[in-house]
Structure formats: C-alpha cells, structure tokens
Amino acid sequence: MPVFPAMMQSDVVLRERGNGAAGPLRPPAGRSIPDDEWRLILEEAREQEVSRCPPDRGLPAETIRGIARRRGVDRATAAVYAWLLGAPGQGPAIEAFFAGAAAGPSPDVIRAAAGRLTVLVVPGAFYEEHPETGAGGESMIRELESLRIRVHRVPTRSCGTLEQNTAILRRALREHGGRECALVSLSRGGAEIKCVLRDDPGALRSVSLWVSVGGILAGSPLVNWVRTRRVIDWLNWSIFRWRGRDYRCFTELARGAAGSLAFDVGVPAHMEVVHVVGFPLRRHATSRYARSWHSRFAAEGPNDGVMLLEDVLGFPGTILPLWGADHYASDRWDFRFLAAGILRHWHGLDTAARTPAAANG
C-alpha cells in the first residue's frame, strides 16, 4: 500500500522554489499527490509568509498559526509542507530518504544491517488494549524480520507513566550490551526517548539512529482539552480507575506546562534523528474520531489529530512529511517503505562513520 492514499500523478511543477532556493518544487521521490492538493501546496509556497522566510531558519510557529487563522488549517498544512520540501536544511534530506526507500534496500545493505544492527521498537500508548491501532509496532517488526534484521519490542507498559517506561527503556538499552542499534518509536514512545535524552543520555551511546513515527514530543492538545472540561475529565479519570490504570499516563502528556514534556533536550552527535509525521488535510481524516480532533485543534494550527505540527519543527532532526496521513491512519503508513528507508539511511550513516576509520587505519 502507498504511504499516500489513492494518489494520482501531478504534472504541476513550481519553477521558482520558495525560500529562495533554486530549482523546482516536486513531491518526494516515488510519491505522487492529487493535482488539486499539489496546486494548493504550490500556491502556499508562493505566499509571502513562506517565500520570504529565511531558508536557514525554521518556520516560526507564529507564522504557521497566522496562516491557519487567516486562510484555514488546510492551507497552513500545505504551507508547512511546501516549506519543508524547499528548505535547504530539510528538503535534500527528505528527498534522499524517500529516494532510498523507493529504491529499497540492496543486498549489501541488508547483509550489513543483519550482521551489525539491532532495531529496538518503542511502542505507543494503549498498544495492548487497542492492538488495532498499530501502536505496538507489529507492522514494522514484521517488515524487518522478513529481511532477517534483529528487532525487539521494548516491553514498556501499555498504560505506564513516563517515569515507569523510561526506566524500562533504559534497562533495555543496558541489556543490549552496547551493540549498535537503531530506535523506532511510535507516538508516546517518542516522549519516553526524549525523557531518556534528558535523564540519562549515556544510555543512548550505542544508538546511531532514532526514527520517531508520529512522536508526541511536546505533549498533545487533546489532553489539555479533556483536562479543562471537568465533567469529561472526571469521566475519563473514572474509566482509568475502574480499569486499574494510572491516570498520569494520560495527564502527563498535556501540552505545555500542564504536562511533563515542556523541556528541551540536545541530541548526541553520534545519533541522527528522523521524524516521520503525518500531514493531513481535513478530507484525509480516516474516522469520525480523527475528523473531530483535527477540526477541534484547527485554530491552533496544522495537526495530525493528536499533536501540533509546529512542535516537531522545533526538535532537532530531519522531518519526513507523509502527506495525507493522520495520527490514527495505521493503514496509510506504509511500513515496508519506511523499513526500507530506515535501512538505507542507517547504511549511509554507517558507511560514513567507517570511511574515516578505514582511511586512517
């Protein structure tokens, strides 16, 4: 299945790229976007807020929110997407990842990864209670196992707190014994890795690549919305209590000071970070639940139905925008494609790290 849902090839090409960069703006390699949606992206690329944004700086959150207020959340989503493709600090890396994923891992890449790499998958919240969401990483695990790559799911608690799951993750990294590994986190799993970066960055010394899929790194406005409505919050708390769950596993994911993720972290020089993030328009929402949350947060800016896209823009790393996928669209996230891209990307990092050593040896 494609990463992007039911897309037809677009012939529309921008002859002067936004952000002052030269060359045409095109969909990432191997991907196609419906013509009307691609025209929307190109229109936003030409708007002053995007075209005049310095290419060597991030797209300000205030700019994104302003576009959402004036022209709607769909145009704001298209504007951020266009900016990412055109930004010198993001566009080439996005194209390289998608091109590698489309080509697939070569036999040499698979042999190298099978011999040296272990992938640890950090699942998202409620993966045991709701396996249909794909938050347990089963699709990614199956794809990697089919290529004979060593892959293990970190046994975090499905309804555990950040403190509990961070301790489990740190223990898993220690048990890994310092052998080279890559981390693939899903949704809340990204928050747990962020906490390890703050509390014990040395635990990540053997991690060369972290791929955060839909990572909730700065909290979710969904939690804030529930917490500010006393009756709904009480009902939610009651359900958690009735099921014997710690309500903190929900409340600490609030965005901003109300939660536990309002802190910045640095990323070690030896570890590269890749964020895989859904970029849905209103029409792309896969369910009534997804449409409800996406619309509810529209005034705050582009979102995937759980988190605001502006939050990932402030985190170190390369952002891979998946046009047309929301946070809940597990059927639209092509994990074979992502697994191929991860292996190709890891092999490139591994080759670059080994080349100086070989030259000096």
Description:
The chain has 361 residues and is α/β, with parallel strands linked by helices. It has two domains: 18-86, no CATH class; 106-360, Alpha/Beta hydrolase fold, catalytic domain (Rossmann fold), CATH 3.40.50. It has 15 helices and six strands. It has helices spanning 35-46, 48-51, 61-71, 73-86, 91-103, 107-116, 138-146, 162-175, 188-199, 221-227, 230-242, 248-251, 288-296, 309-313, 335-360; strands at 118-122, 150-153, 181-186, 207-213, 272-279, 318-323. A six-stranded parallel beta sheet has the order 2-1-3-4-5-6, with helices on both faces. β3 (181-186), α9 and β4 (207-213) form a beta-alpha-beta unit. α5 (91-103) crosses α15 and α8 crosses α9. The longest helix is centred in the C-terminal third of the chain and has 26 residues, at 335-360.
Key attributes of the depicted protein:
single chain, 361 residues, alpha/beta, Rossmann fold, 2 domains, six-stranded parallel beta sheet, 15 helices, disordered N terminus
CATH superfamily of the largest domain: Alpha/Beta hydrolase fold, catalytic domain
Structural class category: alpha/beta
Tally of individual domains:
2
User: How many β-strand stretches?
Assistant: 6
Distance between the termini: 45 Å
Rg: 20 Å
Helix content range of the residues, please?
40-55%
Helix and strand arrangement:
Layout: H1 35-46, H2 48-51, H3 61-71, H4 73-86, H5 91-103, H6 107-116, E1 118-122, H7 138-146, E2 150-153, H8 162-175, E3 181-186, H9 188-199, E4 207-213, H10 221-227, H11 230-242, H12 248-251, E5 272-279, H13 288-296, H14 309-313, E6 318-323, H15 335-360
Parallel strand pairs: 1-2, 1-3, 3-4, 4-5, 5-6
